[in-house]
Design brief:
- This protein has 16 helices and 14 strands.
- By secondary structure, the chain is of the alpha/beta class.
- It folds into 2 domains: 3-115 and 241-291, 3-Layer(aba) Sandwich (D-Maltodextrin-Binding Protein, domain 2); 119-238 and 299-330, D-Maltodextrin-Binding Protein, domain 2 (3-Layer(aba) Sandwich), CATH 3.40.190.10.
- The protein has a 5-stranded mixed sheet. A 4-stranded mixed sheet has the order 2-1-3-12. A 3-stranded antiparallel sheet has the order 11-4-13.
């Protein structure tokens, strides 16, 4: 072999090796709509932490849309290294298809949910329609903006929060079903994801009230300016867990398993929990939660398990094709 061919071969090998090394220091986090700004700040903090502790640079890319649409995209081949969703069913869907570990919920503390949120109402400044609680959402002439529960976890939690609110006040399953049916009659259009719902409410100026995650208040104030909306805390709402998982299929190919693990581990650090709190995402850390008690108003909350068994069970009963939501919305 000539020296030129040897040099060319060595150069090709070096380029390939650098490509592998680059891939090993690059992650794609596929996440839900409303977490966009949180992960932008978290990624910068993690990159600094990783550089300080390992001496290595890391690049993290983000992808955000409705959580269920994102889960389907990953299942269909989108090469996420990690998924950070807002409902366990979206991660479980990937586990059932062998994309993430079967025991993903045991890989990290708090059933692999480093943060939580809850559902509240956003109304236009000054609350012109006087909306205070769930019952106000079914009044004639009130238009409610909400995410389609078939495409986003934001929408599923809104639906379950409304259903559970009736049960919390002593209502029956039948009464809950009737209430939710009335609520969706007041929904002029179903949004695809959390950001789409916000855009519908504020940019397209549709609706009187937006049901969304608590964290969306901070995002709206940053994007549209403070004072555009008022946050209304209903008498009761739901605990919404934000689950995370390593995408085994991708990290096995790219060699990013260790980096992906470190990335999700750091979500439980005090620094990450503080960043979450600043974005009005409820931290698991009691210390950080106490520090930001002015952000997180006291709110009576119930778990999914209390009335629905689990999100997986709720998915089967309410959101799968032909389920309770289809029956309600078809009417």
């Amino acid at each position: 072999m000539t020296s030129l061919k040897i040099k060319t071969l060595l150069a090709s090998l070096a380029l390939a090796a650098s490509g592998v090394a680059s891939a090993q220091n690059q992650l794609l986090n596929v996440s839900y709509d409303v977490a966009r700004e949180f992960y932008k700040d978290y990624n910068a903090a993690f990159a600094a932490h990783y550089k300080k502790t390992t001496g290595q640079d890391v690049k993290i890319d983000q992808s955000h849309a409705g959580s269920s649409a994102q889960a389907r995209a990953v299942n269909d081949g989108l090469a996420a290294d990690v998924v950070t969703m807002n409902t366990t069913t979206d991660v479980q869907f990937l586990a059932d298809n062998g994309v993430v570990a079967k025991d993903w919920a045991k890989k990290f503390p708090h059933d692999a949910s480093p943060t939580t949120s809850t559902m509240l109402f956003l109304v236009r400044n000054g609350n012109p329609k006087g909306i205070k609680d769930w019952d106000d959402l079914i009044k004639p002439g009130i238009q409610v903006i909400v995410v389609n529960p078939k495409t986003g976890g934001n929408g599923r939690y809104a639906y379950l929060a409304a259903w559970g609110a009736v049960r919390e006040k002593g209502g029956t399953e039948q009464q809950a079903a009737e209430f939710v049916a009335k609520l969706y009659k007041n929904v002029p259009v179903l949004a695809k994801g959390g950001r789409d719902a916000t855009a519908t409410f504020l940019q397209r100026n549709q609706g009187d009230v937006l049901i969304t995650f608590e964290s969306e208040v901070v995002s709206i104030n940053r994007e549209f300016g403070a004072g555009k909306v008022d946050a209304i805390y209903p008498s009761v709402s739901i605990v919404a867990e934000n689950p995370v998982a390593v995408v085994e299929r991708t990290v096995a190919k790219k060699g990013t398993a260790q980096l992906a693990q470190a990335y999700l581990d750091y979500l439980y650090s005090d620094e990450a929990q503080e960043i979450a709190a600043k974005h009005a995402i409820r931290p698991r850390s009691e210390k950080v939660l106490k520090k930001y008690e002015a952000t997180f108003k006291p709110l009576k909350q119930f778990t999914v398990a209390k009335y629905f068994g689990s999100l997986t069970e709720a998915q089967k009963v309410h959101f799968n094709d032909g389920g309770q939501f289809d029956k309600i919305y078809a009417k």
